[in-house]
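Good day; I would like, with your permission, to put a structural problem before you. What I wish to show you is a protein chain and, alongside it, a tokenised description of its three-dimensional fold. I would ask you to consider whether the tokens describe a fold that such a sequence might reasonably adopt. You will find the record immediately after this paragraph:
***
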Amino acid sequence: MEPSLRKEMQIRARIESIFNKRLEDFATRQEYDDYLEEREDIIFNLVEGLEVKEMEAKVDNYRRLNADSIIKNEALRAEELRQRVAAAEEGAGQAGVSGTAAAFKEGTDAEPHQGMEYTAALPEMAAAALTAGVAPVPLGPAGTDGNFQAAAGQPTGDAWLAMALSSGWTQDMPKKKALEQAFGSVLVF
């Protein structure tokens, strides 16, 4: 990712977490639009390096004056995210074949474009994870020496195989999973 894009994303996330009022917090739509325009002006000026001291002072002043509403709106946002993730996990078992494929499966005639409303739970859960701000955890260094032998205290390949087999894993599981995913994603028109 380009450094300028990374900088803009960081600034945008920081400012949007402070200027986080919702449409319901305003009497009219015009007031809300003015609020959003002010927020975007601040983001633009900070990204472009224009009037940085004034913009930072404006952000700090807003943060001090609206600390209660910022916390309240952040809590509401977190609760909505929790509900979306719960709904996505709940619907994960229901996601899959819909519309045309289901109609053909039942033996009925399907209308054109009936199955175009594909419902997948994974993108919703992935989006929820992205908005949650959870950073990926980097892997540690590889536990091998120069000859690619396992370091002391780490399980060897045979130990991993024994653990996998004792947990119920079989060698044909990856193949079955790949076939299941491949046929589960086929769209029938």
Summary: Residues 3-65 form one domain. The CA atoms of residues 38 and 146 lie 58 Å apart.
